[in-house]
Amino acid sequence: MDLITWHQNPLRDCEPSQSLEPFGRVPAHRVHQYHRSWPQYHPTPLRTLRGLAAHWGLQDVLIKDESQRWGLQAFKGLGGTHVIGRYLAEYYGLDPWTDFSTLKEHAHRKPPVVFATATDGNHGVGIAWAAKQLGHSAKIYMPRGSTRARVEAVKAVGGEVAVTALDYDATVEWVADAAKKQGWILVQDTSWDGYHDIPRWIMQGYMTMVAEEFLNNEATRPGKPTHVIVQAGVGSFAAAIVAFLANVYGRAIPQVIVVEPTDAACFYRSAAAGDRVLYPSHGPLSTVMAGLACGVGNPMAWDILQHWVTVFAACDDVVTARGMRILGNPMPDDPRIVAGESGAVGLGLLSIVMDHPQYAELREVMGLGRDARVLLFNTEGATDPVMYRRIVWDGYLSGS
Fold this sequence. Notes:
single chain; Rossmann fold; 2 domains
């Protein structure tokens, strides 16, 4: 059984382009400063797993732990707070980088805004929470099969939520049409013809994750990673991180692996085709990685990823389940990390590649040896506690 299928990216050329400009040092610094104006802000930890790195013969394994972000257990609030802030600044006629307190002061000076989005969970929580914090409201629509825990998480932060009878991609289309008819503001993290500013603002919000580590005081800045593993749903998070790294390091960018669920792997399939066309992933999108269950990728993200990623990989659910169990049961002296299904897949991939002889070629292609410093992102905590316990406690998806 192939737990991982992978393809070395034939399109990688590391050529600078206009698509990188919104994700450079200056925009990243401004986004970070904006986030710091929120009273709930604090930087998330960068965990070092020295014991695990030694076990695999690597120099370092570093994990940016976004389960600690905003009290929302996921990184998505970074995009939500930034996009709603940018939209409201424009709505009020203020400077684009207006801080939290000033935006809050203007909440009653114009009619309230209704923000709307389709989500598998974390994005909706981030939008609903940010809208409420700034005095507005959000309508959140979730695809069929969404778990009760994810629905309740949206309600808990003040969102009005409904579960549709559609899959994720069809729900996006439905909400886009409804928003147009109802006069709501659509805040989706993917782009299409005529819809670019809002998804770009969301993507820019994600840069705070790396700005906290790579634009801070040089004395405390971590060393340059040699490898970065990022997960992709619609690809906006992955592209924001890769674009930032491309701006910082240029052609010396770390080796990047983008990982997706096997049944929702549009970027893997598009890279394998080799013709620079972004192809959708058809089918039921069956995966426990709810936050990555997207069949249609973000074209804005593809414009970045195809030029800078070394390897695209598609993973069976067993891979992320293994990552969850390793992070929850660490090596001696390593920190314990609670990672949800979409958060652990990068570590799961690394574990399979390092432990299974059949992936020796991928190890060699990526240069995963004793000098490797691997950076990963735990993008969510146990946002579905029932599934978390089923996997970590009960051994669900333990086959290999």
